[in-house]
């Protein structure tokens, strides 16, 4: 009986996985079975952390706005909650990211906006 050699498809699949995991350390970049497991784990973590990053940035913006308002109670007659509530009530399309940037770069401008909408 003649010898049958395996095709190239399995090798091509493993090479593709090896290229993905080439920067991993130890057996995670050398052994096929652990490469596959680490690739799955990396993709799951990336998918999860894309949502987590949005959450973390929103918390950062809120804490920045709150810190600027808390440090300057004399200039502004409001709290973070009241400021955001009045922005929505007046239908001003300024989100927390923009308000945080205004607070950091131009603090006086934030106080003018806050006192104007109140």
From TrEMBL:
Q: Does the keyword Ribosomal protein apply?
A: yes
The entry's keywords: Chloroplast, Plastid, Ribonucleoprotein, Ribosomal protein, RNA-binding, rRNA-binding
Question: What PROSITE patterns does the entry give?
Answer: RIBOSOMAL_L20
Show the SUPFAM superfamilies listed in the entry. Ribosomal protein L20 (SSF74731)
- Where does the record say this protein resides? Plastid, Chloroplast
GO cellular component, alphabetical, reads:
chloroplast; ribonucleoprotein complex; ribosome
Q: Which InterPro entries is this protein grouped with?
A: Ribosomal_bL20, RIBOSOMAL_L20_CS, Ribosomal_protein_bL20_C
Magnesium as a keyword?
no
List the CDD domains.
Answer: Ribosomal_L20
**BP GO annotations:** ribosomal large subunit assembly; translation
**What GO MF terms are annotated?**
rRNA binding; structural constituent of ribosome
Q: What does this protein do?
A: Binds directly to 23S ribosomal RNA and is necessary for the in vitro assembly process of the 50S ribosomal subunit. It is not involved in the protein synthesizing functions of that subunit.
The family this protein is said to belong to: Belongs to the bacterial ribosomal protein bL20 family.
UniProt xrefs under NCBIfam families: rplT_bact
Q: What is this protein's name?
A: Large ribosomal subunit protein bL20c
- Source species: Lupinus albus
High-level lineage: Eukaryota, Viridiplantae, Streptophyta, Embryophyta, Tracheophyta
Q: Which gene encodes it?
A: rpl20
